[in-house]
Amino acid sequence: MFKILHKQSLSPQVDEMIVNAPYIARHTKAGNFAVLRVHEKGERIPLTIADSDAEKGTITLLFQKIGKITEEMGTLKPGENIKDIAVPLGHPTPIKKYGHCVLVGGGIGTATLYPILKALKANAHEVDFQELASRLNFYKQEKEISLKQFRRKSRKKCRGKCNKSGSKR
């Protein structure tokens, strides 16, 4: 059983859930995903691990309430439990010396980019992020990494030849 420590709505259809999972938090890498089962008779569903904190022993899950199981997840409250979480699954995103990196995402898919952005920054990469059509504000993850700083750098490089988002006209 995995205890839900925090839950909030990011939009009418998207929720963020922070779950106590120390082993998972220590072993998860950017690009891994989880398969979870909310209760004993529940269906197993895959979800991206949007963030992990090894020191606190927590993982963050982000989900869109579009089916029976994710609707059920939306009704869970802090203090309640998720029955099973199987992780880390999938192949981690390779983080090498790339130099300057540009990440582009849109909608709920931007949540998958946060762990990659975090891993790239930890390996001293310069990273720019461009969000397309989403108002989730890059999944509200400006906790540790200031996207404003990335956008400012991007705009400076354009020298007046870019639109407000930092992309070329």
**Biggest sheet statistics:** 7 strands, antiparallel
Tell me how many strands there are: 9
CATH architect. name of the largest domain: Beta Barrel
Poorly predicted runs? 141-152
Number of domains: 2
Estimate percent helicity.
10-25%
- CATH H-level superfamily of the largest domain: Translation factors
Q: Structural class, from secondary structure content? A: alpha+beta
Widest β-sheet, arrangement of strands? 6-1-2-5-4-3-7
Percent of residues in beta strands: 35-45%
Could you tell me the radius of gyration in angstroms?
Answer: 17 Å
CATH class of the largest domain: Mainly Beta
Give the averaged pLDDT, no decimals: 77
Distance between the termini: 51 Å
Silhouette: globular
Summed up, the helix count is 5
Strand and helix order = EEHEEEHEEEHEHH
**What is the CATH fold-level name of the largest domain?**
Elongation Factor Tu (Ef-tu), domain 3
Notes on the structure:
- The structure is a single chain.
- The protein has 169 residues and is of the alpha+beta class.
- It has two domains: 2-89, Translation factors (Elongation Factor Tu (Ef-tu), domain 3), CATH 2.40.30; 100-157, no CATH class.
- It has five helices and nine strands, in the order ββαβββαβββαβαα.
- The protein has helices at 22-27, 68-75, 113-122, 137-140, 147-158, and strands at 2-11, 14-20, 33-37, 45-53, 58-64, 81-82, 84-89, 100-106, 126-132.
- The protein has a seven-stranded antiparallel sheet, sandwiched between helices. It has a two-stranded parallel sheet with strand order 8-9.
- The N and C termini lie far apart (51 Å).
